[in-house]
From TrEMBL:
Pfam families: AzlC. Keywords: Cell membrane, Membrane, Transmembrane, Transmembrane helix, Transport. It is a multi-pass membrane protein. The chain crosses the membrane at residues 17-36, 69-86, 135-157, 163-182. Belongs to the AzlC family. This is AzlC family ABC transporter permease. InterPro entries: Brnchd-chn_aa_trnsp_permease. It comes from Lutimaribacter marinistellae.
Length: 238
C-alpha cells in the first residue's frame, strides 16, 4: 500500500507502535509504583517521568537514589544507561538531520527504544521517503506510547503499594527489548554484536552502578564493527 502524505506516514507510525502499548503500560506503571515506594509524591513522580522520559534510566536513577548513592554517581549511571540513545541519534541523523531545529528538538525528546527501532527499520527499507514523511512517521511512532507512558506512570503512582506483586509488572522491560532487538538482527555483524554484548553483560554484572552495561555495549559495538569489516573484506577478496 502506498502512502503519499506526511499525515499518512504519521498514521502508519502510530499504527506500527500500537503493540508497544502492551509494554509501555506495565513499564510506566512499574515506575510509578517504585517511585511511590521510594518516597516520591505524585508531582515529583510525574515531573521525573516527563523530564527524563527514559524508562531504564529512570529506574536506574531511582534505585540508586533509594540506596543513598552520591548524586554525581546517580547522574553518571543514568546517563550511562541512556548512552544507547546517543547511538540511536547518530543512526537517525542521515534521515532526520536536515529537519528544522524545533523538529530536531522534538525528535530528540521522543527518541526512545520503540520509536528508534520502528523508524530505523522503516527508513532503511523505504529509501524513497521524503524528509517530511520520515519526520511524520517518527513522531507518529510516539503517538500511542507517550500518553500510555504518562497515564500508566500516574496510575502506578496513585495506586502505589496497592498493586500486588502477582501482577508481575517487571516483565515489561525484558519483553520490550526482546521485541525490538529481534527484527533488527538482520546481518551476521548484528548477531555478533548482540551475542558479544550479552556475554560481556553477564560477565560484567558485578560492576557497581550498572556500569557493566556500558562495558557490554562498547564490547558489542567493537565486535560488530570488526565483524562487518572482516565480512566486507572477505567479499572484496572474492
Amino acid at each position: 500500500m502506498s502512502f503519499s502524505t506526511p499525515k499518512s506516514f504519521f498514521r502508519r507510525g502510530a499504527r506500527d507502535a500500537i503493540p508497544f502499548i502492551l509494554v509501555a503500560g506495565p513499564f510506566g506503571m512499574l515506575f510509578g509504583v517504585f517511585a511511590t515506594e521510594a518516597g516520591l509524591d505524585l508531582l515529583q513522580t510525574m515531573t521525573f517521568s516527563a523530564t527524563v522520559f527514559a524508562g531504564a534510566a529512570q529506574l536506574t536513577a531511582l534505585q540508586l537514589m533509594t540506596e543513598q548513592v552520591p548524586t554525581l554517581i546517580v547522574l553518571i549511571s543514568a546517563l550511562a544507561v541512556n548512552l544507547r540513545v546517543a547511538m540511536y541519534s547518530a543512526s537517525l541523523t542521515p534521515y532526520l538531520g536536515q529537519a528544522t531545529l524545533p523538529q530536531r528538538i522534538l525528535a530528540a525528546y521522543l527518541t526512545v527504544d520503540q520509536s528508534y527501532a520502528l523508524s530505523i527499520i522503516r527508513f532503511e527499507t523505504d529509501r524513497s521517503m521524503s524528509l517530511p514523511e520520515r519526520m511524520a512517521y517518527f513522531i507518529g511512532t510516539s503517538a500511542p506510547i507517550v500518553p500510555t507512558w504518562f497515564g500508566a506512570t500516574y496510575l502506578g503512582a496513585v495506586l502505589g503499594n496497592r498493586v500486588p506483586e502477582s501482577m508481575g509488572l517487571d516483565f515489561a522491560l525484558p519483553i520490550a527489548f526482546l521485541a525490538m532487538i529481534g527484527p533488527m538482527l538482520r546481518t551476521p555483524a548484528h548477531m555478533v554484536a548482540a551475542g558479544v554484548s550479552c556475554v560481556v553483560a553477564l560477565m560484567a554484572a558485578g560492576i557497581p552502578y550498572n556500569l557493566g552495561l556500558i562495558v557490554a555495549g562498547l564490547a558489542g559495538m567493537i565486535a560488530g564493527a570488526q565483524a562487518e569489516y572482516l565480512i566486507e573484506k572477505r567479499k572484496a577478496a572474492v
